[in-house]
Structures are given as C-alpha cells and as structure tokens.
Design a protein that fits this description.
Helices cover 28% and strands 21% of the residues. By secondary structure, it is an alpha+beta fold.
Length: 546
C-alpha cells in the first residue's frame, strides 16, 4: 500500500534528521529577546518535528501535513478567531430543514496557485480518493455521515450512490444519511479539503511530494521540499485575499531535538518556535518573546483491551486510579501542563454556554492508591503478583520520557513493575495503530471544535479506534448525539458517553491537557490567536532587521 511505502522512506529521513539535530546545541541559558533574526523581513522560518505522513488531504496525515494545510489549503468553511464558522472557499451555503442536505457555493475568485479555477470537482476528488481503502486515509470516517460513503469504502471505493453532487463547477451538494449536528465542524477534516483533480490521482501515488503537481488554493503554495530537511511555502498571488498577506515565504525546518531548536531560535536561525519545551517558561520569563496559548489537546494512556491483563476492566481501573496527575505535570512543567480527567480537552468551550469542558464534566477518575490496590486484588493480582510482563510504550520525543518515568514510579507503588519502551515516532504510530502495543501513550488534538472529534474515535469501526473497542451502549449514545440538533440535549449525551469511556470501562486514562509555549521574534506583529487553539502566522508582519 502507498502509506507503507511512504512511511518507510520517511523513517529513514527522520533517522537522518535526528542524528543531525542531536549535534546542534547544548543547554539553553540565554533567552535574550535582543537576539536578531537572520532571516529577511518578508520571510519566516520555524521548526517542526521530522517529516512524517503525506501532503495529500485524502491520505495519511500527521504533524507537518497540518502546517501545509494551514498555509496552503482552504476548505469550504473555516473558524473565526471566536470559534464561529465563516466562509472560506465557499462564499455561501444553505441546508434543508432537517439538516440532511447541504449545498455550498464556491467563490468565483477561488483560484489554485497556477491561476486555474478551484471547482467542486476538486473537493469531490479528495472525497472519492479517501473512500478508496488503498489510499490509507486516516480520516475517512469523517465522510461516513454522507449517504453511501461508508458503503463505498467497504466496496473497494465504488462511489456509485454516493451522496455528493457537483451540479456545476461552483456548486457542491452533500446528502447525509441523517441529521448531523456537527457537519460544518467536520468540514475541517482533511478529507473535505480540495485536491486538484488534474494532478491528484490515485495512479500517481507520489503527486503530493511533487511541488509542480501539488497545487494550493490557500494564501501560500507548496514551493520547495527538501526530503527530511525542510519544506517551503511561498505567497500565492492568486489567492483571493493575497493583498492581506505580508509574508512572502514560510519555511519549516525538521528538527526533533528541543535544545537544538531553542539554540536555533536564540541565534536568529528561527523566527518562531511553536510547542517550545517547558523550560523556556523560566529562561524567557518576563520577555516579549514568550507567548502562551491554550490548545485543545489531551494526553492520555491507551489500554489495549485485547491483551492481558488489560482485558480486565478492574486492572485498567487499578492502573488509572494509581496515577497522580499533579506529580506528572510538575515533572514536565506545571506552568503549561494542566491535570485533567476528561478525554474531551479540558479547555474546550461548550456550545451551550461557553463553559470549559472541565467545568461541565464531573471528575471521571479518582486518584486513590488504596482503591487501586483493592481493585488489583479483586482481579486476582494482589500486590501485582501473577501479572504478566507489562510494557508502557511512548514516542521518543519531547517530554514523554519524563512522563513515562513518573508513571513507572507510581505503578511501582501499586506493586507493579512496568517496563518502559521508547520508539521513533513513525514506528510508534504504526505499532499503536496496528494494535500491537500493550500499554501506550496517546495524544489527541481536536481536529475541529466539537467534542465528537475526541469521542468519535472510539466508536465501533472508527479508523482511529486502534484497539477495536466495541461497546453497544457507547455506540448508541454517540449515534443519537450526532442526530440531536438541540445543543443542550446533545451535550448531555456526550457527557454520558465520555463517562462510559473513561469511568465505567476505563478504556483510556486521561492525564493532562496543554498550554503551548511559543517563542516568537518580537519583530513579528499581527498574530491571530484562535479560541480553538494556537496562533495563526498567515497574516503577520515582520519588521526588517536593523
């Protein structure tokens, strides 16, 4: 399959990059906001994790894809700073009374970077290719609300009967299986973004790596790719809002060593460092470089219910109740990591009244070592005796080793010796998605502003349900919530479903949510910060170096 071929190549690139960046720098003790950028006033350079996934919205997506999507692609709609949904590639849209038919009218001035018209066929192109199982789409489940989509996927991508029509070049109509309360939110998923139907073809599996074929309809276009080293975007003069774009070039360098990234920022080689390591909060305290932003993310433990001893809910609950989240967040930087027992990001804002989810939902897991020991005893493993060997696996990146060590010590108090195993990111993802990991770190950042972006992951058949968990009550509640158009009633259903996942069945154990720390050149102005999380660099202005 295409995905396997690409991931193998990218693993080699990531390994090369790791060896290079490891030589890049020592401890960072400076933190001077007076360091000057070495880049021009009309460009910015940032860092990203080593190259992974694809640049095809229909395919396998990960960290760097979302940078590409943010700068280079534009979906039918997008989020405004306050989290509301506003026009993007579509200028207007309407639905029928029961929200099962949605018609979007594309902008007449929507252009690809080669000047050609963005058409409804380009949106349909991504959808049909994602529904081909050979594409290996990670987000294909987001299309299953469309009539005939799931059937198409299960029938080798045969889209006869698919509820997507293109009456003309500037109109696309979706017919859904049933009312879908969060359909406009789902349009933020990669599988709903356009891919140029002239070049993006299944028979050319490497089109997305070719900058002459990978056309873009966003404010920037995909200008250059140096495999495993960097990618560069340049201003798309054919973008309808091009006069608001002040930066001419954006480059992401692939780096996986935090100290090397901070050193590169301090020497002016990077203009900004997103997801900066927690210790910059101290070294840059009081300086204008340091920014902090809430992000809709949950870091959690995934129990493999198909492997002993985690096929027993009492064992899962024992491990979860033995966790002390404050100790974990203290170890990795209490300022930017916040303990949480919810799977839906703690700071997600309710569509009912704007309250944070952590205030709406009850505490889903106690921190009670004695109760944990009693549950382990009831499961037949008093003081951990008789347990098979247990391995906790995590990606070899950022703070994950520190989290693993704290968990290991806490489970030791439960009477259990847990082996720790670090893996290169791509290997870890492949092993986790294949259901091979016994006890694993997982993290999910919301793809759109709705609780379903988390909770849908563990519905039966969802491509993100790595452990293939099936719970009929959970499935039924989630299906009912999708059809419920009353926001308050729908929220109650989602709260109930989350309780089953975390408290009753303890398939996962939430640990914490995150405030991202950024280092940003003080000469950069015009940053936008969104309620859905993170900063937007697209509309910035950068003062020329003196």
């Amino acid at each position: 399959m295409r995905k396997v071929r690409k991931l193998t190549a990218l693993l080699l690139a990531a390994a090369t990059m790791a060896s290079l960046s490891a030589c890049g720098g020592g401890d960072s003790n400076g933190g001077s906001s007076e360091s000057k950028s070495k880049t021009a006033a009309n460009e910015i350079i940032m860092a990203e994790q080593p190259e992974n996934g694809e640049y095809d919205p229909a395919g396998a997506t990960a960290y760097v894809y979302f940078d590409y999507q943010t700068y280079c692609l534009e979906g039918l709609v997008r989020y405004a700073e306050d989290g509301s949904i506003i026009p993007a590639a579509a200028s207007t849209w309407e639905s029928n009374d029961d929200a099962t038919e949605w018609t979007f009218h594309l902008r007449e001035d929507g252009k690809w970077n080669d000047g050609s018209q963005v058409t409804s066929a380009d949106f349909l192109n991504t959808i049909t290719r994602a529904l081909d199982p050979e594409t290996g789409s990670w987000y294909v489940d987001g299309l299953f609300v469309i009539k005939g989509a799931e059937e198409a996927f299960n029938n080798d991508g045969n889209t006869e009967g698919l509820g997507v029509e293109c009456p003309d070049d500037l109109t696309i109509k979706f017919t859904l299986k049933e009312p879908t309360a969060n359909f406009l939110d789902l349009l933020s998923l990669p599988v709903y973004f356009p891919s140029n139907s002239k070049y993006a073809k299944s028979e050319d599996p490497e089109w997305d790596m070719d900058t002459t074929k990978n056309l873009c309809n966003g404010p920037f276009y995909f200008a250059e790719r140096k495999a495993g080293i960097s990618i560069t975007f340049k201003k798309n003069e054919n973008y309808y809002d091009a006069n608001k774009i002040n930066i001419e070039k954006v480059t992401y360098k692939f780096m996986n060593d935090d100290q090397a990234k901070v050193a590169a920022y301090e020497t002016g080689e990077l203009d900004a460092l997103g997801s900066a390591p927690y210790y910059v909060a101290d070294t840059y305290a009081g300086k204008s470089d340091l920014k902090q932003s809430s992000v809709l993310v949950t870091n959690y433990i995934l129990f493999n219910i198909n492997m002993e001893p985690f096929d027993d809910v009492k064992v899962r609950q024992a491990f979860a109740l033995a966790v002390n989240r404050t100790d974990i967040t203290t170890a990795i930087g209490a300022q930017s990591y916040i303990p949480s027992t919810t799977f839906v990001a703690k700071r997600y804002k309710s569509k009912v009244d704007g309250s944070e989810w952590g205030d709406v939902q009850e505490t889903l897991l106690d921190e009670n070592l004695e109760k944990a020991k009693e549950l382990l005893k009831e499961a037949g493993y008093e003081n951990g005796e008789g347990l098979p060997e247990i391995t906790y696996t995590y990606p070899a990146m950022s703070y994950e080793a520190e989290v693993a060590q704290v968990l290991q010590a806490q489970w030791k108090e439960l009477g259990v010796d847990v082996k720790l195993q670090a893996m290169e990111y791509e290997v870890y993802v492949d092993e986790r998605r294949s259901g091979k990991l016994q006890l694993a770190r997982h993290q999910w950042t919301g793809d759109y502003g709705d609780p379903a972006t988390w909770l849908d992951m563990y519905r039966e058949g969802n491509s993100q349900n790595d452990i293939k968990w099936v719970n009929e009550e959970y499935n039924s509640i989630m299906a009912e919530s999708a059809k419920e158009l009353d926001a308050a009633k729908r929220q109650e259903l989602l709260l109930k479903a989350e309780k089953i996942l975390v408290s009753d069945e303890t398939v996962i154990c939430p640990l914490f949510t995150t405030d991202f720390l950024y280092l940003i050149n003080p000469d950069i102005t015009g940053l936008k910060q969104y309620s859905t999380g993170g900063f937007d660099f697209r509309y910035i202005t950068k003062k020329a170096a003196e």
